[in-house]
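Re: beginner question about structure tokens

> Can someone show what the tokenized structure looks like for a real chain? I only ever see the sequence side.

Sure, here's an example I had lying around. Input first:
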Amino acid sequence: MSSKTPTPHPDAAPPGSAPPERAEPAEAADGSPAPGARPGLFRDASLSAVLAGFVAVVVSYSGPLVIVLAAASAGHLNTAQTSSWVWAISIGSGLTCIALSLRTKMPVITAWSTPGAALLVTSLGAYSYAEAIGAFIVTGLVITLVGLTGVFGWLMRQVPTAVVSAMLAGILFSFGTGVFTSLKTAPLIAGSVLLAYLLAKRWLPRYAVLVALAAGVAASAVSSRLDIHLDRIELAKPVLTTPEFSLASLIGIAVPMILATLASQNAPGMAVLTASGYQPKDRLLIGSTGLVSTALAPFGSHAINLAAITAAICTGPESHRDPRRRYVAGVSCGAFYLLIGAFGSTLVVLFAGLPKELVAAVAGVALLGALAGGLTGAVKEEKDREAALITFLATASGLTLFGIGSAFWGLLFGVIAHLALTRFRKPTEATK
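And the corresponding structure tokens:
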């Protein structure tokens, strides 16, 4: 009796070294623990996974949070409301990261909707804050419904694997190049990060990102680029706002927020997990983030969703060589979210004071493994390469239409190309 040789995992080690264990579902179909699942968080914990979660949080608070603060300013929110908003999205992200990562034994990384926050920069000022809260509640309820019905997951499963991998590579492309573009404006900082990463990758591969981060912080201090001023630390005080519902705010905020969050955040987030070898349960993940969004909306949370870029930091081999132990990065990310969220916006200045070149360079080297995996998966099957290439180019282009980001359009164009090149192709003489 013959047996089929299993396909190696994308993170497989080179010949001659012990291969990593394959990612296995944490549960069987009936909900019981799957064979080989690792139940012990402390036993599975590693410095590299904890660091991956920390780097993901640094990237989140050094970039996307700035958009939230800009939206709060545009909506004329006072200090208490802004602090409550930061608290709500941080606590929501932290709780879902920890709960879903422990539940699924996958590195489930969640965050607040970046395109949703960008939408609010231009629209929040046109409505009262209470009307915006009402729109946030409706947004959460609709996303919950879409997730729990399984419609969203079904659509994602129709997308070819090569197209998903190409979209992941396109998302991460600018972060990879960011390491080198940072050399122009901050050569000492970016150069230190890159050199430290390469040397550590050779001698201390498990801690390469940690060494790179330490080198970058040291270089920033030497070049007087650290601008951290922490006057006081105080616990955040959530502000409960009674919602108001109006047709205008539902059309102007809720509808575009739902589309942007599902297409530009949850779709890439699911794709990152799938491309990393996991089998995410869409109903659980999308439904849970929707429920948490709804519960925290009265405190200012506009939308909690699956992350893509920061997720790639935690799902790749830099987090841990064994895919089954990378869920620790999700728990770590959630813990840091909760820590920072508990203090509202007071600790945000710690991350705001980091040079943007340092954040770009560290994120870039941390994502190299995930980028390599995406590129490998995109070109693996010859019949899907052109569709994957179209997906990659469209996603990497940064195209934005109707408030929806390039990840969705790359996915859409890739699926269209796949159908045109495979499903609707006329048979050749050899196949007639």
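Each token stands for a local structural state, so reading them left to right follows the chain. Strands lie at 110-112, 304-306.
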